[in-house]
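Hi all, long-time lurker, first post. I run a small reading group and we've been trying to get comfortable going from sequence to structure in the token notation. Rather than ask abstract questions, I figured I'd post a concrete chain and ask someone more experienced to write out its structure so we can walk through it together at our next meeting. Sequence below, copied exactly:
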Amino acid sequence: MRNILILAAMSIAAGCSSSKPGSDDGFVSIFDGKSFAGWHSYNRTGVGKAWKIENGCIRLDASNKAGWQATDGGDIVTDEAYENFHLQLEWKVAPKGNSGIIFYVQESADYKHTWMTGPEMQVLDNNGHPDAKIYKHRAGDLYDMIACSQETVKPAGEWNKAEIIANKGTLEFRLNDVSVVKTSYGDEAWRQLIAGSKFKSMPGFGSFSKGKIALQDHGDDVWFRNIRIRKL
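-- Answer (accepted) --
Happy to help. Here is the structure in token form:
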């Protein structure tokens, strides 16, 4: 089974060439397709060796594991912090894969992981990963807080277009051009969402309105490309 998954991941990687970004509409690229300029590993300098750039994509190579993450992996984050923004990117995941896009991340020795401060848009193979059986843990969900209004995710190995729009107390997720999550952010209703989630015991979670964007190492092969952002 392990060999089958490796072959599947190799097949996915072969089709990783980035498509051209859209017109000049106020978005700027935060991944140049050829280097990790503007990115670093969370709470570290540089980028772990498990993260690679292949055919214009950022790829996590999880062929070697250290616990639940890749050996010399860990989440990577932007150098810059963002407040009100519209993020666009594309992702695909290996069969049975799990990852995430996390935002408003704070770097501090007080926080061991990105998800201790930043909410997450789930990245998942809904057809193969066990998390898909858990409500609010499926692809496109506001992880452990709000489930998608409808499921538009594509199968493992196919590209998905993801968007996160955080603007002055509102939050929206779009997956493959469909709005799948809408909520307020930072108000009493938001605090109640946190209180009903696994993050309720994490001081600081979801309380920041400016922070870095993270790509998650959850120990599975995942690819990202065409990462663009527009400040609002």
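A couple of things your group might point at:
The mean pLDDT is 93.
The longest strand covers residues 222-231.
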